[in-house]
Amino acid sequence: MAQAAMERPPGTAADWTIPQNWTGYTAREHAVWDLLYARQTAMLQDRACDAFRRGVEHLRLSDKGIPNFEELSERLAKLTGWRVVAVPGLVPDKVFFEHLANRRFVAGRFIRKPEQLDYLQEPDVFHDLFGHVPLLSDPVFADYMQAYGEGGLKALRRGALEKLARLYWYTVEFGLIAEPGGLRLYGAGILSSFGESRFALDDTSPNRLKFDLMRVMRTRYRIDDYQQSYFVIDNFDQLLHQTRDADFTPLYRQLETLPDLAPDAVIASDGIVSRGSQKHAYRGKFQ
Ligand code: HBI
Ligand code: FE
User: Fold this and answer.
1) I want to staple 233 with a disulfide (CB 3.0 to 4.6 A). Which of 155, 181, 211, 278 is the partner?
2) pTM of the predicted model, to two decimals?
């Protein structure tokens, strides 16, 4: 993904971090967190994967205001060595990957306004903390995220980031996992979204396909609506080993010879968990 050059805002450190300034949050801002936390926790009963629920508990995320990054990092570091650092917003790809490769998760410190509970352009502190951080307390997922950061730095040097970014999108942001009790959510983009946390599991519209590294890296994605396909892993060991232990050099070379796939494509080699009607994507069209 060719990212436009970004200017480092005044007041940010060389690695783009800023102080969270936790004491600067207003009561109204803490109340937005509490509302989102309560609403999402209720929605995720029987929807979030096991590791996410354990993470929320071990990290003591709660409806008692926006967490303090320092306190949260102390608890998280004891579990997996990860820390959470504040950034002003989106940071350049290279900066993002360098943080991940060093077990630092960058989080926005701002929180959405009460009138934008369901739609956001840039990730805020609720998406970044509630969506991403619980799974960083899982040792295998924690290793996967570090490996992704290391892989991102290599992909940048090879001009292959567009392909690798799809892996992040369809796993870290929008992944599903098959647990003994049924399909569960582990992607942060879903876990932090009231609408998509129902849609991704319960709706008949999207495809749900078995995760396959090459398949995922060929597949374009939607940034403007719910996903048209979700990819299902069996467990985090599978995800870690299919990616960290792979040599991406021949894979990127092969990807250059293969056509990209549309977000709703289903191909012969797919492991189909459920085939979607795509009625959500096509609503109002062809009628
Ligand atoms: N910056 N703050 C922030 N959060 C992200 O998720 C992020 C980013 N910069 C770049 C980036 N993600 C992409 O490189 C990845 O999603 C592939
Ligand atoms: Fe995210």
Assistant:
1) 211
2) 0.96
